[in-house]
Amino acid sequence: MQHNEVIRSMKTVTLTLTNPSELLLEGQSITPDNFAGKKAAEIATLDVWEGKQKGPLGKYFTVAGDGGATAADTRIILRGDCTRVKRIGQQMTAGEIIIEGNADMYIGGWMKGGKIHVKGNVDSFCGIGMEGGELIVDGNAKHHVGASPRGEWRGMKGGLIRVAGSVGNDTATFINGGTIIIGGDADIHVSTHGEGGTVVIKGDARGRVGGQMVKGDIYVYGTIENPLPGFKMVGEVEQEVDGETALFAHYIGDLGERHPISRGKTVYANLYTRI
Amino acid sequence: MSELLIKNGFVFDPLQGIKGDRMDIGIKDGKIVETSALENPKTIDAAGMTVMAGGVDIHSHVVGPKVNIGRLFRPEDKLFKSPHKSPTCSRMEMGSSVPSTFKTGYDYARMGYVFVNEAAMPPLHSPHVHEEIRDTPIIDNAAMPVFGNNWFTLEYLKNNEIENNAAYTAWLLRATRGFGIKVVNPGGSEAWGWGLNCVHIHDPVPYFDITPARIIKGLIETNEHLGLPHSMHLHCNNLGNPGNYTDTLESLRLAEGYTPKNNFGREQVMHVTHLQFHAYGGDSWGNVESRSKDIMDYVNAHDNITVDMGQVTLDETTTMTADGPFEHHLRALNNLKWANVDVELETAAGVVPYIYSPKVKVCTIQWAVGLELALFSKDLMRTFVTTDHPNAGPFTRYPQVITWLMSRAARDETMKTFKWLDRTIESTSIDSIDRELTLYEIAQMTRAGPAKALGISNIYGGLAPGMDADVAVYPLNPEDMPSDPAAIEKAFARCAWLVKDGVVTVKDGEIVAEPAKRTIWVDVKVPDNAQVQRDIYEHFLRHYSVKLDNYSLFEEHLHNPRVIEVNAAQ
Amino acid sequence: MSKKVENVGCPYCGVCCDDLVVTVSDDGKKILEVENACAIGNQIFHHATGGERVRLPRLRQPDGTYKDISYDEAIDYAANVLYKAKKPLIYGFGSTNCEGMAAAAKVAEKAGAVLDNCASICHGSSFLAMFDNGYPSCTLGETKNRADVIVYWGANPAHAHPRHMSRYSIFPRGFFTGKGHKSRKIIVVDPRHTDTAQVADIYLQVQQGHDYELFDAFRAVVRGHEIPDVVAGIRREQIVEVADILKKARFGTIFYGMGLCHSDGRNHNVDIAISLTRDLNDFTKWTIMAMRGHYNITGPGAVWSWQYGYPYCLDLTKRDIAHMNPGETSSIDLAMRDEVDAFINIGTDAGAHFPIDAVKHLRKHPWITIDPNICMASEISDLHIPVGIVGVEVPGIVYRMDNVPIQYRKVIDPPEGVISDEEVFERIHKRLCELEAEEVAKEPVKAAPEGVRVGE
Predict the structure, then answer these.
(1) How far are the Cα atoms of B8, B108, B400, B473 from residue B487, in angstroms, in the given order?
(2) Predicted model pTM
(3) pLDDT digit string (tens) for B421-479?
């Protein structure tokens, strides 16, 4: 493959939040796709929103460095306190974003490719509607990690979300594909209405794990405080998960939900709890 | 008031038999006039363009409770799918398959339409329907109350009391400010009150013990007894199932022996809607096939019937119908979210999102069936363009439907995307049809024909002096038709000009004015009928959950009315 | 001669009784008697003419007192607040008519505001469940005429919807239910043994916060699966017994309330209740209905759905496209996160209903209350605009809890000079248009149409 042999020269754009907004910022333009092919000065003219006021990115951020030729050649580093900057990396297809601290809602929302690394915490709706790529959060995430947008039954389709800390409720609602790995605990509702994909909770889960779930896999390493009556244990299995092999109790469910039949056999969702 | 002269266009007006003649159209005080009557008109240069009357949609779900549930419960039909507001429009335009009221009005106007008949109004919800009509800009609206599962209707028709049923019908049209008699899955939606259905027209309705066949015939008789502008408007039983064409043919045969009695120029006694959903052979989804030929052979031979297509447009859409049991059936097929509203004493409704995919054989067969109906038709004054919006596709896809009808190349191009092309060709006739419809025939199917069938062709659907000055000019030269079908589609999607009530409303595909719209309803005078008054009083006293005096639409909730008066008192 | 007004709709709860008879004094200024209403409905009518009413808008002065001002001044103040704010929030609408809601939407769109209603802190979770799973429902007359099994789950109509049980569900004799209460089985599920539970044939004392698990158990049993011995505090045998009753009903309705919407999991509790209703329709006929609170709180969900496609939490700040995501664009979240910089409280009392932290954040910015009465919100506002009471002094369309529109009447005139919510918003809209035109005249470039933005 010729393509892989080309040494790609990734260019880095550094945004430093020097003049924070009074209310909050909606920064959906902060993606490698939008920065690609633009000089620093052009990037500074891209739109961000504070409520109904549209302003140039440069009003809030200092911009250093030019974008690469394509999104894949563009790396964005965000510095300063982005706790109140939403929608960074929304719908990005390639390239890289590094957020040095915290960030607000919708980080990596509807992401199709590339990589986002948040070194702090994120608020709700990160990785919502994700189709591909990688979203890494070193801290905690709030609610709706990798969930589907409101009313959408085609939830997360692909990609990887890795949250080192804990997450709030409604993780992976309507998940259809892809993988979510939570290092810490999860609040209620994991993979509700799920129809595919894999969710791994390395800590404890509070409850409602796999409710109304049709297909897909969930692993819980710790305890489930309130297991659902619709899951039934069917045996013990050894499985390799995230690079380590362990013994799990295997449950199928949600028995209250519909399930497809494939080659004469009913397909259930699988819940594995570590023994 | 202002005068306008639309100069030098190629005019297609089937109501007057004008077939693309190069003519001028004069407009004065909101009406079409002889050009000689103009003194100092503003001029619209329509040279090299196609001029038609404003479009008339005979069957579309645009306002009312089930449409609104479709909007409410589908936020995903908006996200990333709504256009940004046009700076020339006064309001935002949200939604895709189920657009907001504002988007509905704007998009119809951009396509050159001026009149849309809401296909199903649950009478209990008429104030809601009229609130939405108020908020639907530009286009004139009528709404048909549903009768086919109404307890009064079932009771009267069971006892063959046509006069009583007529008196009740007149009362309900007035109470709801309704337009005509809509019938949806007769008997079946009442059976759905118990989770049941009437699949065939001879299945008796539980408790009421009347058959759908009797309901259909009784409502034709009622309609002609009253002499309403429009005919009985029927959504047949057994919608959407393989092998249903035999039920459809049986339903069509019920019109035999009836002749229209009205003063509105209407020639049919039965309008059968979204015929595409009712023209399937086979006995399972595995062997479903087109029976459009059998259906159209019958329709072609019986001129007291009109039909509309219900063309599948191969989009993600939202199905919604007063056929409650059908939507329940559909949600079991695709497992998607399902809304249902049974309406006391009157009707039901269901809503389920649906994706018509070119990768699914059944969907591509449905696509072919719809087009075949039109292409097999021998009388396009009786065969109308619809998508049963939004059931088989959104109305915004009419330009694509027109293009498929006008261009074999366009059909071929679409068929190339089919995953099951061979199976689709095997199961349908579409590949053997070369017919390409003309602009005149499109004008028949989209304005002249529907207006005539609705009994409003003295006001809408044509360009004769005295009619409403609703004129659409399309950037399409009949003497130099584009070889690329996409150009036809583009022309019908965004008209060059729309004049509505004499006001220039669309220019170059953009809304430039939002003239006052109207609500059209039918007021029928019937002899006093003490028994019907007593029955109404009793049902409201015992069975309705609202008071009789709060049921009829208050005058203040009727917006800019245009009443069509009918005297059936003699 | 006193005058009787009949078929009057009641401006209290979502039951929307429309059979009230109100007797008005001969000068048309005093309400003398209200027949057929519950105690609370009765009170609303009597209150209208019983005491002193605010008759003029009141503006907060530097010394903290209120000063009466004219409607014109109040409208100008409100329009300027909306015009200058970066992200104003217009919230409430529990107690007004649909005409007022439509006018308010016009204002919000023009001003670039967030538009939200009381469902945001009430049945909003029902909307979320409808988005995800649909809503198999019916009108209340269907329940009255057909239902032989009624479930009240997490709802206590005996207190919150006083005439619900007698008008629609348990007691009335309908077309196919001639024996009334005798022909119906009543099941109540609630952690508390409420007054509604008193009339139940079967009462299930679900463990607080575990309704979801109980629904899951019902669904598993309906599909013929085994369940644990006890789920959510209920024994297996009783779950199996009730599941059998549900499956064998001729027609059933599940009425649910805040017990589902406001306990852990919120929308998911409603969502799985909808799933159970779907399942049961494979056996017989079942419907489900939210016990909506205020008489017209269903209204804004209807009006804004046809105008924008979203029932609540509408972020219209971009002015050319609407965005909705409860959890972000919901009033409490916006207030708690300090995301808004102006607040209009209309037809509700955010001062009483919002968490104190939310109120504190909102109070940092201009706060305007539009309400007929003095309430907590009006007393902490910068501006209070009094309006006529819908259903008493102002007519209009309201939507009952089952989405049926009811045409409300006017019984008496509002106090002299007091205008309607609709007129207030229409006039604010007009003033906003003027402010915009002034701005265009000053800076034509700034107000030019905005171009297409990147992404959503």
Answers:
(1) 21, 19, 10, 15
(2) 0.97
(3) 999 999 999 999 999 999 999 999 999 999 999 999 999 999 999 999 999 999 999 99
Task: Give the per-residue pLDDT at C442.
Answer: 86
Q: Pick from C136, C145, C282: which is nearest to B338 by CB? A: C136
3-state secondary structure C86-150: CCEEEEECCCCCHHHHHHHHHHHHHHCCEEEEHHHHCCHHHHHHHHHHEEEEECHHHHHHHCCEE
Amino acid (1-letter code) at residue B352: V
CA A21 – CA A60 distance, rounded (Å):
7
**Domains, chain C, with CATH or none:** 1-51+391-415 (no CATH), 58-121+295-387+420-442 (3.40.50.740), 124-290 (3.40.228.10)
Mean pLDDT, chain B, whole residue set: 98
Q: What is the pLDDT of residue A6?
A: 52
Residues 112-151 of A with CB under 8 A from C: 124-125, 143-144, 149-151
pLDDT digits (tens, 9 = 90+) for C263-293: 999 999 999 999 999 999 999 999 999 999 9
pLDDT of A1 over the 50 cut: no
Tokens (6 digits) for A206: 């509070």
The H-or-E segment that residue B134 falls in is helix B126-134
Closest CA to B104 of B73, B75, B68, B69: B68
Evaluate whether C58 touches C68 at the Cβ level (below 8 Å): yes
Are C456 and A90 an interchain contact pair (Cβ–Cβ within 8 Å)? Answer: yes
Please tell me whether the peptide bond between A254 and the residue prior to it is cis, using omega within 30 degrees of 0: yes
What is the per-residue pLDDT across B177-203, written as a single tens digit (0 to 9) for each?
999 999 999 999 999 999 999 999 999
- Please tell me the predicted confidence (pLDDT) of residue A7: 58
How many angstroms separate the CA of residue A92 from the nearest CA in chain C?
10
Report residue C448's pLDDT band, with 50, 70 and 90 as the boundaries.
very low
Contact between C163 and C124 under an 8 Å Cβ cutoff? The reply is no
Tokens 């239910």 locate to C177
Tell me which residue has tokens 């619900």: C164
C388: which 2 tokens?
């006529």
Report the residue from B67, B100, B124 with minimal CB separation from C139. Answer: B124
**CA A35/CA A44 separation, integer angstroms:** 10
**CA-CA-CA-CA torsion sign (C406, C407, C412, C413):** positive
Residue A5 scores a pLDDT above 90 = no
Ordered by where they begin, the domains of chain B are: 3-52+463-511 (2.30.40.10), 55-356+373-395+439-454 (3.20.20)
Q: Does C446 touch chain B (CB under 8 A)?
A: no
- From the number of C-beta atoms within 10 Å of its C-beta (0-12, 13-18, 19+), residue B124 rates as buried
- Which residue, chain included where needed, has tokens 């947008």? A149
Structure confidence by residue, pLDDT tens digits, B119-149: 999 999 999 999 999 999 999 999 999 999 9
Contacts of C307 in chain B (CB under 8 A): 91, 94, 100-102, 135
B84 inside 8 A of chain A by CB: no
CA distances from C285 to A30, B199, C226 (A): 51, 17, 24
Those residues with Cβ within 8 angstroms of residue C169's Cβ, 6 or more apart along the chain or in another chain: C140, C143, C144, C147, C150, C152, C157, C253, C255
ipTM, 2 dp: 0.97
**B contact chains, 3+ CB pairs < 8 A:** A, C
How many CB atoms neighbour CB B570 within 10 A? 5
- The domain ranges of chain A are 124-274
Helix orientation angle between C71-84 and C98-111, rounded to the nearest 10 degrees: 50
Question: Which of B84, B100, B124 has the CB atom closest to C306's CB atom?
Answer: B100
Predicted confidence band at C445 (pLDDT cuts at 50, 70, 90)? low
Neighbours of C8 (CB within 10 A): 27
